[in-house]
Amino acid sequence: RDSEDRPLKATVLDFKSDEIVEDVGLADIAERYRSQMALYGKALSRMLQLDPSQITLRLLFTQVGKVYDLE
Question: Could you tell me which of 15, 67, 6, 12 has the C-alpha nearest to residue 38?
Fold first, then answer.
């Protein structure tokens, strides 16, 4: 937090319960959510008055227990 107690960084973590099929990569599945996550990031940026570049977008795939960072 800065001197005025505002956050300097933030993370959006969205839990996904997709069934993961072996022949489809995690990156391919994650790409399906890119626009949704971008909207979440934009909303959080406005709410916290935070530069969008300071917001990390992550998907947690519960079936395989893996986190995927959208960059």
Answer: 12
Helix (H, G, I), strand (E, B), or coil: what is residue 13?
Answer: strand
Give 15-27 pLDDT, tens digit per residue. Answer: 999 988 766 788 9
- What are the Cα distances from residue 3, in Å, to 13, 32, 33, 59, 67? 26, 38, 35, 31, 32
Which residue has tokens 């072996």?
22
pTM (2 d.p.): 0.87
Three-state DSSP state, 66: strand
The closest of 28, 25, 6, 43 to 57, measured between CA atoms, is 43
Q: How far apart are CA 8 and CA 19, in angstroms?
A: 35
